[in-house]
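The methods section describes the discrete structure representation at length, but only in general terms. What matters is that the chain and its backbone geometry are given together, residue for residue. For illustration, here is how one protein appears when written out as sequence plus structure tokens:
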Amino acid sequence: MKYLVFDLDETLLKNDCSLSEYTVNVIKRCKEAGYCIVINSARPFQSSYNASRLIEPDYFVMNGGAEIYRGTERIYAELLDVQTANRVIDSFKNREDVFEFSIQGEATYGSTPEFIRNYPNSKIFDPSVPFTEEVSKIIIGTKNPGFLYQIAKEFHLIVTNFVDSPWYRLNITTKESGQKKLFELLQDENPYVIAFGDDTGDLGMLKQATIGVALKNSVSAVLDEIHEVTEYTNDEDGCARYLDKYVLKREVG
């Protein structure tokens, strides 16, 4: 089977998180040409679904590989159990060098009122009571991340840094492991994959793909390793213009 795999933010989506009519039409043509559309994002499902619903993705790999959806049905999850999640949370929740964190359980929980204002559908985290949900990812803001690698080693977690920022993701999966699991679930041993991304968290899935494509606006660490690069940025419909030229074989204006 043939797949088109997209990161969302600063890749498929414009900087205002929208999809242009042009991009929607190009991806529709790719679907008609036999491609399966996959969103592979660090976002939770509902956020990813809302952002990409115009292109009607076939599958979603969410929360950095922790969950997989077929349409709106979750078909796979690899989560931190409640006991382990509480031990991980207890190891950092009272640290003075952690200025904010969020936890993705059944809902999104933030540690500060500012987080709740920025993400209206989230809930405030209550540090005085044990957490009661399985966890797909934890995002931690700190300028002293050394302790995170100690936590990761103790609990067999993976640390992913958002380049040039004090934000770090802790979970037990990666985008590439989630992508690999999707193909296992589909029993597809020889997938043909064109994947698009822009940040270091996308590197694994880009290298795993048949063709990994970096957006023109990608961070330097990605551009240093991925040599197939779009001619246009995400804000210029970079993914769609690439597909129009190299997959649909149409002239791109």
Residues 113 and 146 are 26 Å apart (CA to CA). The chain has ten helices and 13 strands. Residues 21-32 form the longest helix (12 residues). The longest strand covers residues 98-104.
